Amino acid sequence: MNTTHTIQLNPVGWLSQLSQSEIELLAQHNDSDRYQLFRNCSLAVLNSGVEQDDMHALLNANKDFDVRLVRRERGVKIELINPPSHAFVEGKLIQGVHEHVFSVLRDLLYMENKHLSTNQSEFAAGAQCTDMVFDMLRHANALHGNEQVNTIVCWGGHSIPEHEYNYTKKVGYELGLRELNICTGCGPGAMKGPMKGAAIGHAKQRLSPGRYIGITEPSIIAAEPPNAIVNELIIMSDIEKRLEAFVRFAHGIIVFPGGVGTAEELLYLLGIMLHEQNQQQHIPIVLTGPKESADYFVAIDHFIQATLGQKAQNLYTIIIDDPQAVGSYFYKHQTKVEAFRKAIGDSYSFNWSLKISDDFQQPFIPTHASMAQLRLSFDQPTDQLATNLRRAFSGIVAGNIKAQSVADIQEYGPFELHGDDRLAALLDDLLTSFVQQGRMKLPGSTYTPCFKIIPQ
User: Domain ranges in the chain?
Assistant: First the structure.
């Protein structure tokens, strides 16, 4: 006979003190689609530390899991029904997981309600979109403590070999020794390694608490659950707001080896940095990996040069197999970033002056039609080409791991990308190298491409 395991969680942080109207707004979601999303994301954070990238496998293994909100006069409790056993130690929910569950409540229900109630939609752009990103970070208390100009955003693949993972730890260690904090996409691989290394560096410097911030979004968190080091979890409403949060929050950005998701992030960053209003911006950018990964950066650098040009190449520095040099690079640039922000009167904790055009803020919904309609040709401005390339890579990420896109591809076949002969060849070479290097799925998995490139 099956038994039901139920546990109630007391709220943490400011969610422990809510008004009656706020509680009522939360309670209204019990039967909504967003509540189902809340359920799935809660399950994902309860899976924290488990390295897997198959959302369907996670959901199928926990069909009897559910989550409910229990109203109390001064707030809400979260009731978990049949949560996964690995989230507990000696019958008690791990504290970090407890906090992450309430981060899901804060970001997916409370904050979404707040924005909808003020007539702000998820398709907001321009200043309205930036205000939403700021508000999410502020309510997560992420901006407090970011005034020290010491947050390094690290991007890289969740599916990387052991030598690359070890290298990310070494870089994180050097950053930690220099009392720099780490922000990543919160998952495994190159998102976990820098945090793990920095934690050791912080411990040696007696820096407590170190900050290990994970920024994710609902459609990806189940495929990339928070790694065990994350101590601040933030769930943005879509990939575009997630990317904007990264670049406005960062005081420097590292790109480790990765696959299409990492390429998407780099194209987004270079695309906005190429805007004429960002010519004076100072955001140190480093591409780095071990010597065994040098060919990866040659391929990326060649693709950037061939598509976006020398001006884009000049925006970043490539450092191969030298973690100490990476740490020193960002340490030396701290004062330059601070001086730039001070000179223009901008915030140290949130880069308001960075210009991000609407094309980079509007959510791109990958479907067979929208992917096929992407303009992948050289007869357009460079920033628009960067936008379309970013969207192409975003769609491939979705086809690899996001539930709706995976289901669409199973029913209708791979996405089709149509590009002129030269650009199609460049895309095909780069994506083929990612597949051959095993950068599309976790090690041990067999990858079936979710895309086809069709020259025109």
Answer: 6-119, 141-344, 358-455
Q: What is the pTM of this model?
A: 0.90
**Mapping DSSP to helix (H, G, I), strand (E, B) and coil, where does residue 5 land?**
coil
- CA contacts within 13 A on the Cβ side of 22: 18
Phi, psi values for residue 227, rounded to 5°:
-75, 170
d(CA 26, CA 106): 10
Mean pLDDT calculated for residue range 282-299: 95
Q: Where are the alpha helices (DSSP H) in 348-381?
A: 358-361, 368-372
DSSP-derived 3-state class of residue 161:
coil
Instruction: For residues 147 and 94, give the distance between their C-alpha atoms in angstroms, rounded to a whole number.
Output: 30
Element (H, E) at 255: strand 252-255
In Å, the largest CA–CA distance within the chain is 69
pLDDT per position as a tens digit, 387-399:
999 999 999 988 8
SS3 content of the chain, % helix, strand, coil (to 5): 50, 15, 35
Instruction: Evaluate if residue 309 carries a pLDDT over 70.
Output: yes
pLDDT tens by residue, 229-249: 999 999 998 899 999 999 999
Q: Is the pLDDT of residue 366 over 90?
A: yes
User: What are the backbone dihedrals phi and psi of residue 92, each rounded to the nearest 5 degrees, phi first?
Assistant: -115, 135
- Cα–Cα distance measured from residue 13 to residue 442, given in angstroms and rounded to the nearest whole number: 35
C-alpha–C-alpha distance, residues 179 and 274, integer Å? 30
| Dihedral angle sign, alpha carbons of residues 226, 227, 233, 235 | negative
Q: Give me the CATH code for the 141-344 domain, please.
A: 3.40.50.450
What is 6-119's CATH number?
3.30.1850.10
